[in-house]
Design brief:
Order of helices and strands: HHHHHHH
Largest sheet: none
Radius of gyration: 17 Å
Number of strands: 0
Distance between the termini: 35 Å
Number of helices: 7
Length: 130
């Protein structure tokens, strides 16, 4: 048995991680596109936040970037970290500013954390080079 075969994760773990990454990419691509398109509910929500509509555009663009990065095998960890930061902000905003349920944000945060943990070697590699 080769060393590569011993170090490779089981096939089901790899497939499961791809499924999670795909679901996250779909969720964030849809949310980001809705923010950039200007869905009236989101325009009103960001108006209530009080930072202006530029923040809606920024959030939408970052969500689309995170959706793209999480699908790129060599950049998945960085996409996951970006999405974690966005979901922390969403959770805090729901708790203290706009109200509503934090459950969707927390679920997406947890799924993003799973990807970041699974791809932690990418983060460690960057840390070594810095």
């Amino acid at each position: 048995m080769s060393l590569a075969a011993v170090l490779a994760p089981p096939r089901w773990k790899s497939a499961g991680l791809w499924i999670v990454r795909g679901l996250l990419a779909l969720a964030f691509a849809g949310a980001g596109a809705a923010k950039l398109y200007g869905v009236p509910m989101l325009v009103e929500e960001f108006q209530h936040i009080g930072l202006g509509q530029w923040f809606r555009y920024l959030t939408g663009a970052l969500e689309l970037l995170g959706a793209f990065l999480i699908l790129a095998p060599s950049l998945a960890a960085f996409g996951a970290v970006l999405l974690i930061c966005i979901m922390i902000g969403a959770t805090v905003t729901h708790l203290f500013v706009i109200g509503g349920s934090t459950v969707p944000a927390l679920v997406l945060l947890a799924l993003s954390a799973i990807v970041a943990y699974a791809k932690r070697d990418q983060i460690a590699s960057l840390a070594k080079h810095l």
